[in-house]
Design goal:
Blueprint: H1 53-58, H2 72-96, H3 101-119, H4 126-148, H5 156-176, H6 184-211, H7 221-251, H8 259-284
């Protein structure tokens, strides 16, 4: 099964398949964190670090390691670089493009294309990921500055940032304490709900373009508030999937380079949450 964050396109850590998680080894007493049974994709050939102690003792790896295994420090460092690039781009957009949203929207569209390209690449490309982060930041900064200039919405972007941070911390605590458990059923539910959410958003956009107004009303009033809350909740659930992918990647010896995929996925999910939070705050504050 394949998991993904809200854009439905990020390829996960699996080396040879489309599934974004890791498969747990079927050994008595072995790791059982991953609900999807199978074999560790890094246990043979590609990453000798992923073999268990018994197999290493009996048959030393025949291939020289190309990379040490991914660690939590790698994930934190790459995610910090990626989010830092988003912030730098957002600063540029806020300062210079608030009154030129056309250019900012163009940057956002290019960022989306880069994200799709990376999603279908078999290996992470740091340059591509950082370029996506920079352009996405430009778009977010310009849009946030434009919204902040509206009298009723002054301060809304900062509230959205704080809200996004709160969602991240809350979901991290819920995941680490196992209040939220990522299982096959959980993943299916999140994916189906997210596909329905995006489909409704696209239909609403079509009605807005061809019919004018607010389309089906998903972005204003009481229905808009409900839709915004659902969007934030879905983003939080995708964070749990991202945390699971990172946890499995470290447990099963993913190569160090895969930490860029973790950073990429976490960044896209946080962008999703921020955008939904900003829309929700805008509706609640009456514009």
């Amino acid at each position: 099964m394949r998991s993904s964050n809200p854009v439905f396109s990020r390829r996960g850590f699996s080396r040879d398949t489309g599934y974004a998680g890791f498969n747990a080894p079927q050994q008595a007493g072995g790791p059982t964190a991953n609900p999807y049974a199978g074999t560790n994709p890094y246990a043979q050939g590609g990453n000798p670090y992923a073999q268990d102690k018994q197999s290493v003792t009996q048959a030393p790896p025949q291939y020289a390691p190309q990379s040490r295994p991914m660690t939590m420090d790698d994930v934190v460092a790459r995610t910090g670089m990626t989010l830092g690039t988003v912030v730098a781009g957002a600063t540029v957009g806020w300062l210079f493009l608030t009154e030129n949203l056309g250019f900012a929207i163009g940057a956002g569209l290019v960022a989306m294309v880069l994200a799709l390209v990376q999603s279908f690449k078999r290996k992470p490309s740091p340059a591509l990921i950082l370029a996506y982060a920079a352009l996405e930041g430009v778009f977010l900064g310009a849009l946030s500055g434009f919204i902040n200039d509206v009298p009723k919405l002054n301060g809304a972007p900062m509230q959205a940032v704080l809200g996004t941070m709160a969602v991240f911390v809350a979901m991290l605590v819920a995941y680490k304490t196992r209040i939220v458990r990522v299982t096959a059923r959980f993943t299916r539910f999140v994916m189906i709900a997210a596909m329905g959410f995006v489909l409704l958003s696209l239909v609403n956009l079509m009605f807005m373009v061809f019919g004018g107004g607010d389309g089906l009303g998903f972005r204003s009033g009481g229905l808009g508030i409900v839709f915004g809350i659902v969007g934030v909740v879905l983003g939080a659930l995708f964070l749990a999937l991202d945390f699971k992918q990172v946890e499995d990647g470290i447990a099963y010896g993913a190569p160090r380079e895969e930490s860029w995929l973790a950073a990429f996925g976490l960044t896209m999910t946080l962008v999703w949450i921020y955008m939904e939070m900003l829309r929700l705050i805008s509706i609640l504050r009456g514009d």
